[in-house]
Amino acid sequence: MTTTATVAAKRDTEPFSHRLKDVGFWAEWAALVGLVLLVIVFGIADPTFLSSGNIQSMLVAAAILTILAVGQTFVIATGGIDLSVASIMTFAAVVFGQTFAAGWPLAACMLAAVVAGLLIGAINGAVIAKGKITDFIVTLGALSFASGAALVLSDGKPVTVINAFLLRLSAGGVGILGWSAIIAAVVAVIAHVVLFRTRFGTHVLATGGSSEAATATGISTARVKIAVYVISGTLAGLGAILLIARVGAAEPASNTSFLLNSVAAVVLGGVSLMGGRATITGPVIGALLLTALTNGLTLLGVSQFYQPVAVGIVVVLAAFLTRFQR
Amino acid sequence: MTTSPATSGTAIDTLVTVDDVSLSFGSVRALVDVSLHLKRGEITALVGDNGAGKSTLVRCISGIHRPDAGTISLDGREVHFRNPEEAREAGIETVHQNLALVEDLTVWQNLFLNRELVHRFGPFALLDRRGMQRKAQEMVAGLAVNVPAVKSRVRRLSGGQRQAVAICRAAGFSSKLVIMDEPTAALGVQETARVEELILRLRDEGHAVLLISHNFAQVMRLSNHVWVMRAGRCVGGRRTAETTGEEIVALITGAKSA
Ligand SMILES: Nc1ncnc2c1ncn2[C@@H]1O[C@H](COP(=O)(O)OP(=O)(O)O)[C@@H](O)[C@H]1O
Ligand SMILES: [Mg+2]
After folding, report:
1. What positions does the domain ABC transporter occupy (chain B) (predicted)?
2. pTM
3. Do B13 and B86 reside in the same domain of the chain?
């Protein structure tokens, strides 16, 4: 009995210890390993880091980034990149603020924000797919356009948004999970199903893997391209609603850190920037990691100025690890 | 069976007719008034030097390019494919020169790419992954080439295994015509032999095959009919049984005119 048990155990541990020496294994799980390390280090350094209050606020803080990162994942899976996500979110927030100030009902304001994001995403996609211009350039233009349009539309002034529903959205929740964290989780689950359980998801990965091969089987890569930018823009619109709920105002100020962090979360999540290989779990863990990193540094009293420095280092390290991916 | 002599041989056996097709890329006249036809149940070979226009002609037939002039008919009816999807729907499957498999997807995903099986739930449709994996296993099981598990990524396959998967995909989905653009160009001797077996089996199963090849021995071995292209033109056609490798070479180089 005991001998067979040890033999079985040996058989299980042997390949595992081999895998631990394999860089590819670490590359695949970089984000998770990084997250666990951070939690241990910060948890020891400052016990409040693991208090339920802090975990709750971290999850809420991670919600917007998670939603943007999910949109970014779809774009990057096709081999593109959406540099305009954060600006679209700002623009959508301003649209929300202006419609709210004009006395529209809340539901209509929220819809307007989401539609605004969707439209800019659709323009991005159409110009990239039909105009055959590089993703990088088009979304860089959209970045500038959307942040400028946000300033024009709002005349540069923030609009205070006080509303009972939004207040509950930002403060309420179920147990440790705030509503925005729940929304982000639902978005992630739906995205996972879409990417891995639908024809569209397969076509997204095929477009990124080899657009020539996808075209030859009759897949319209132009339609796929447009669709992923629509997804990214729409999710940026949803992010705008959560942002307004959290801040209590619609501000035209740009949210540039969200752009870098959304790409960073995707890279940390092990998604190939070349397209064709992606997961949703990876970028979600990446978003959690980045949030834990900034939160922990703040708790430890490290100057805010160091946070982008830390994020930059972590991202480049993660990108380096992906070189060893199998 | 009594058929009038006028229609027998052409109208009935002919699956595809290419009539005066021309296509230019800017100033490059890739195809100039190309006319040829190919028959049901036969392997038709298309030969010619590099740059003669073979791949371009294939891309016209499979819906990637649209001819500037001329017509293509399938089953006696003119077709105007606007994209590869329409050609595939009409029963034309192509194994492209550059393979056209997505390396990051698995074997089964490639076999069913854009032909995915789904479970419907009202307006939603979720992939029938199990069903596709099972059918893919069946499709692959009949191959002479040993393909690893259908769940493995194509990236991990050898050249011959990839070609087998690509041919397997083209042979499925009840295709009438399977076009193969230099299917053995990148393969070793043994892999080439296996792929040739596959090609012969396709014909025996009733598919028409259009085979592009640089390998004369292979063309003489496999094909029933040979068309020769030179500098964008179709310069002649022969029944394989009635010609020799030397004559074909002479046609390709222009030493002999049709
Ligand atoms: N997409 C394209 N754009 C421009 N020129 C092309 C394109 N495709 C093929 N050509 C040109 O058309 C000619 C025929 O090419 P191709 O059909 O690939 O020849 P083959 O397959 O017989 O070697 C060549 O001169 C090639 O450079
Ligand atoms: Mg060619």
Report:
1. 16-256
2. 0.86
3. yes
